[in-house]
């Protein structure tokens, strides 16, 4: 897979990933109260060829300014730019002795909790003020992330046959 990001008709980044995974180009604009608007672009990717460890590839962020023209090209002919950093997720050490049967039970319980959280979120939508609902929803999001990061991902890494189709090929 190859992806290029060109700013003002000058090739800036050409990213390549030769293994199963994901490459993405991102255009970001941010502004907070009292701050100057910041614009940048970057390419990042995930190498998921190792079932126990994901590699996170990052290329340099490029600053953007008003009027810049951005072009994203799939499979450019030019030579790829090496990533500016490659970080590895930690090797899975959690739950290595968990049997596949117990892993299935753990996932069933977690998925039931996740479903309950989604249902509670919908119930709270009409009960809370807009501001309180945003806070509640953000806290539910943190909880969902923790379930995925600390329970589901380690189980899926140790028992790849349990990975749902929707997550196959993603960074675990």
What does this entry look like structurally?
It is a single chain. The protein is flat. 33% of the residues lie in helices and 28% in strands. It has helices at residues 100-127, 130-158; strands at residues 2-7, 10-16, 21-30, 38-47, 55-58, 62-63, 70-74, 85-88. It is α+β, with helices and mostly antiparallel strands.
Features:
single chain; 172 residues; alpha+beta; five-stranded antiparallel β-sheet; three-stranded antiparallel β-sheet; 2 helices; 33% helix; flat
Beta-strand proportion: 25-35%
Give the oligomeric state of the chains in this entry, treating copies of one chain as homo and distinct chains as hetero: single chain
Shape: flat
Distance between the termini: 19 Å
Low-confidence stretches: none
The chain-level structural class is alpha+beta
Work out the count of structural domains: 2
Q: What is the arithmetic mean of pLDDT?
A: 88
Largest sheet: 5 strands, antiparallel
Would you count the extended β strands for me? 8
What is the C-alpha radius of gyration, as a whole number of Å?
Answer: 20 Å
Count of helix runs? 2
